[in-house]
């Protein structure tokens, strides 16, 4: 019975950890990480686990962050906030998921993401300098809509109903359903100082998709400790984006002399590990570490086009509640290290671009489990 209680609690945690990757492993501000998602290993108590054959899961995940701290390398450019020239991204993500247990070890999940972004800046409009923008006016662009849909299959190598130690591998596909060509109105000043607007693509960090088909590879593992009262966990994911760029051409920066470039379709990665402690009455507390980011070069295909590569490392507390039919979880990763690494173009030109990161993220997930193969559903 202790083993079954442990497995039920862990399954609740594992799903939370996977959904926390969604819409920015979804974004870390200007480091444009589109929603990745993680296959659904199972939810609820073990007798109604998603991993059990024929069981269905309906889930939703909400994620929010505000990015505004600029980093060049791992050094924060504090003057950006002090001078009010920082770029501010406020992003909200909602993921809808449907999972199905094909066997007691194999499951498949479809994840449908939506995102809503507001971005304000000076440099994309009049400019950051007092000469170009004497009133230091800030303007907004935005995007909202469907992101890149993901379908993932996940296989546990041991029976999750009885094994206190287990690991799984997942393989999936990311479809280019999110619009990578969202445009917005950008404010400019003519020679007489009169305001006018131009229409051009919004920044890469708030585009709804990256425009390419992707391959998702992921892994998960857990190990029971303290007689099933706690568990060590790990989950990781890498998104291969073979496409070079998405054919969206945009002038980079507010200066008309700045070069034009296509938006890259970059790889993405994320991993987390930690420990979870199971409390009475279905509650759990966890603490772990999270890393997510975008590499400078893709593992498959070319890496041309514009991207802001980098990564963030966070400490991630988690609180959850698990019942036989549903569970809810809240995690708030707090950044402890941020690094905007050099891009391919930086290496070619000798420069080093910057990017804005968030101080923390908010992830909340709610999952309802429907045991289709166990007779009528008894609601809590």
Q: How does this structure look, described?
A:
7% of the residues lie in helices and 49% in strands. By secondary structure, it is mainly β. It has a single domain (2-370), classed as Lipocalin. A hairpin with a 4-residue loop joins strand 10 and strand 11. The longest helix is centred in the first third of the chain and has 18 residues, at 2-19. The protein is elongated.
Please describe the structure with a list of short key phrases separated by commas or semicolons.
380 residues, single chain, two-stranded antiparallel ribbon, mainly beta, 19 strands, Lipocalin
Biggest sheet statistics = 12 strands, antiparallel, barrel
Our count of helices gives 3
Tell me the β content: over 45%
Which value, in Å, is the CA radius of gyration? 22 Å
The H-level CATH homologous superfamily, spelled out, is: Autotransporter beta-domain
How far the N terminus sits from the C terminus, by CA atoms, comes to: 21 Å
- The number of distinct structural domains comes to 1
DSSP, total strands: 19
Strand order of the largest sheet: 1-3-4-6-7-10-11-14-15-16-17-19
Uncertain residue ranges: 1-25, 35-49, 375-380
What name does CATH use for the topology? Lipocalin
How would you state the average pLDDT, rounded? 84
CATH class, named Mainly Beta
CATH architectural type: Beta Barrel
Envelope shape: elongated
Relative helix content: under 10%
H/E topology pattern: HEEHEEEEEEEEEEEEEEEEHE
Q: Please state the structural category.
A: mainly beta
């Amino acid at each position: 019975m202790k083993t079954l209680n442990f497995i039920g609690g862990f399954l609740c945690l594992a799903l939370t950890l996977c959904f926390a990757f969604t819409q920015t492993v979804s974004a870390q501000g200007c480091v444009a990480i589109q929603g990745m998602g993680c296959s659904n290993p199972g939810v609820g108590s073990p007798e109604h686990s998603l991993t059990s054959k024929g069981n269905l899961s309906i889930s939703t995940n909400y994620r929010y962050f505000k990015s505004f701290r600029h980093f060049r390398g791992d050094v924060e450019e504090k003057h950006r906030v002090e001078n009010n020239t920082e770029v501010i991204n406020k992003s909200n993500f909602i993921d809808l998921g449907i999972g199905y247990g094909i066997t007691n070890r194999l499951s498949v999940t479809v994840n449908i993401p939506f995102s809503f972004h507001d971005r304000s800046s000076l440099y994309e409009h009049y400019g950051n300098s007092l000469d170009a923008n004497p009133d230091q006016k800030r303007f907004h662009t935005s995007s909202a809509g469907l992101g890149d849909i993901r379908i993932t299959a996940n296989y546990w190598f041991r029976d999750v109903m009885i094994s206190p130690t287990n690991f799984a591998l997942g393989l999936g596909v990311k479809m280019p359903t999110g619009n990578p060509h969202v445009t917005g109105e950008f404010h400019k000043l003519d020679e007489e100082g009169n305001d006018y607007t131009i229409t051009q693509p919004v920044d890469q960090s708030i585009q709804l998709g990256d425009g390419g088909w992707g391959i998702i590879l992921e892994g998960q593992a857990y190990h029971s400790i303290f007689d099933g009262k706690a568990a060590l966990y790990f989950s990781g994911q890498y998104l291969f984006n073979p496409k070079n760029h998405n054919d969206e051409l945009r002038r980079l920066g507010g200066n008309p002399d700045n070069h034009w470039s296509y938006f890259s379709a970059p790889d993405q990665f994320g991993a987390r590990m930690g420990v979870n402690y199971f409390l009475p009455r279905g509650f759990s507390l966890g603490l772990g570490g999270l890393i997510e980011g975008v590499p400078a070069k893709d593992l498959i295909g070319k890496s041309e086009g514009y991207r802001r590569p980098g990564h963030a490392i966070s400490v991630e507390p988690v609180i959850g509640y698990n019942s036989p039919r549903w569970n809810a979880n809240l995690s708030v990763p707090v950044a402890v290290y941020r690094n905007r690494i050099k891009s391919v173009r930086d290496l070619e030109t000798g420069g080093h671009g910057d990017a804005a990161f968030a101080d923390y993220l908010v992830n909340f997930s709610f999952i309802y489990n429907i045991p289709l193969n166990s007779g009528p559903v008894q609601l809590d």
